Fold:
Amino acid sequence: MLPGPYERHRELLRSVVRAIASGESRRPFTEATGQDAADAGMRSTRTAGKVFRSLLGRPFDLGQPGQLGRVRTESSPYGLALAIDYPRCDPSELVAAAGRAAAGWRAAGPHQRAGLAVEILRRLNTRSHELALAVHHTTGQPLQGALRAAGPRAQDRALEAVALALAESERVPAALHWKSAERGGQPLQGTCALVPRGVALLVGCPDFPLWNGYPGLFASLVTGNPVVVAPHPRSVLPLAITVRVARQVLAEAGHSPDLVTLAVAEPERQVHRRLATDPAVRIVDYTGYARFADWLEQHARQAAVFANRTGLNTVVVDSTDDYRGLVRGLALASCRCNGTVRTTPQNILVPERGFSTDEGHKTLRDLGADLGDAVDRLLGHPARAARVLGAITTDEVRGALTDAARHGPVLHASGSVTHPDHPRADLRSPLLVRLRASDERVYTREWPGLVSFLVGTDSTSHSLALLRRTVARHGALCASVHSTDPLVLAAAETAALDAGVHLVENLDDLPADPSSALAELPGCGVHFVTGRFRVVRSRRHAPAAAPVPAPGRPGGTAELVDV
Structure:
C-alpha cells in the first residue's frame, strides 16, 4: 500500500514543527533549491517560459460550480498580451459548494489535511519559475523579486503556517477523563473535537499575491476550513495557478476540489465585499491598505478577520557608526520593487538638529542630499535599475507621486527610468519630500509606492513618540531604528512593542522579506491559527470499572479534575 500524504511528508513537517518550537528559521524549499541556483534558473529555464506562454490568450478552466460567464481583468505593465479568460462564478454558489465540501474535509483530520497541504506546496515548488513569471507580468515586480515573492521562499512561508496549524491542532486531546468535585468524586469521561470555523475568504493582494496570501490559505485548509480565493483584479494569474494545483491534489486524494475555489469578477462588481459580508463566510484574510482592512473589520462582523495593514513603515534615525551604509540601505529600500516590499520606509524621522555619525555631524539637508545621490547612483545603470525597480501598474501610484510633491520641499524628484528590455514599461525613481513634524496630516496618510518623507522632529524622544502614536493608530509592517546608544535602542523596542510593529535595529540593508514567516503573522501570533477553529467537548459518566488512562499525548487523552 502506498503511504498517505501525511506519511510521505511526516519528517518534513516534524522538522518544521521542531524548528518553530525552538525559535529557529527552517526553510526546506529554499535550502533545497538554493537562491543563487534559483536566480540562475530564472535566467536559463525555458520550460517555465513555455508553460507560462501556453496560458496566454486562452480560457483558464477550473471546473467550478455556478459559472456565469468569463472575465479578463489583467494586463502586463511590460507590454505582454495576457488575454486570459477566467470563469466568473456566482459568489453564493462558490460559498455553498465550499460548505458542502466542509464535512468530508473536517472528517479527514489534521494529519491528512497537513499532508495534502504539503503535497500542494511540493507541486507548486516545481512551478516556481512559472509562478514568478505570472507575478512579474501582473504586479510589475522585477523578475528576481518576483521569484523571491512567488517561489521557494513563499512556499517556506506557507509551510511554516502548515506546521503551526498542525501543532496547534495536535494540542487538542481526543479524549478527556476527570473526577467530579461533587457526588463523591464520580469519574467522568468525554471527547474533545476541533471544529473548523467555516468557509474562509482570502482577499488577494495586488502586489504580493502569493507571499501575502499563502499563510492564510494554508492555515485555513489545515484547520479544516474550505477557502474561496478572491484575487485582486490586477493580479489574478498567480493565485489562479495556485487554486488549480490545489484542486488537482484534492481531487486525486478523493476530496471535493470545491474546498478551494477562485472568485474573479470585474472590479466594479466588488466581489470581495460581497463575499466578505456573506453570512456563511466565517474567516477573512487580507493584507493591504488600511482603509480596506478597516472596512472589513467594520462590516464583516460575522467572520474572524485577520487583517495585516501595510500602514506607515517608519525609520527613526538617532545616530550611526556607518553613515554610508545607512544611506545606501535607505536608498535601496526606497527603490526595491517600486517601494512595495514589506520593509519599504514611508516616514524617516530625524531630529531637526541633525545627528552624529562616523563622518561627523549630519543635518537633515545632508541626509536628504546624500540619499538622493545614492538613489541616482543605484538607478544609474539601466540593467541594475530594471533588477531593482518594478513597472508601475496603476494610476494610483502615479497620482501619489504628483500629489506628494506638493506638500513640501522635494529633496529627490521622481523621474522616468528606461527599462533595457521593455522601453514602454513605466519605471520611475522614488520621491523624497521634506516635512515638519506638524505635517502629520500628510505623513499619516498611507501613500502607495515610491513616496518617502524625511520628517524633522524635536528630538529622538519625539521621533519615538511619533512612531508609537502613528503606527499604533494607522498600522505598519515594519519599523527600524539607527542608534549607537543602547538606551535609545531599548526605548525604541518599547515603542515598537506599544505600537505592535516588528522592529529592525541598525541593519543598513533592510531585508526585502523577513527571516521567518511566523515572525510576522498578522498581528495576532498563534491566534492566527487557533482563531480558525473552536474546541467542542462532550462529557458523560464513566463506566464504573473504567481505568484512568495516562495523561496525555497530543491527540490522545488527558485527565482533569472538575472543580
Notes: Residues 35-44, 514-519, 550-554, 557-563 have pLDDT under 50 and may be disordered.
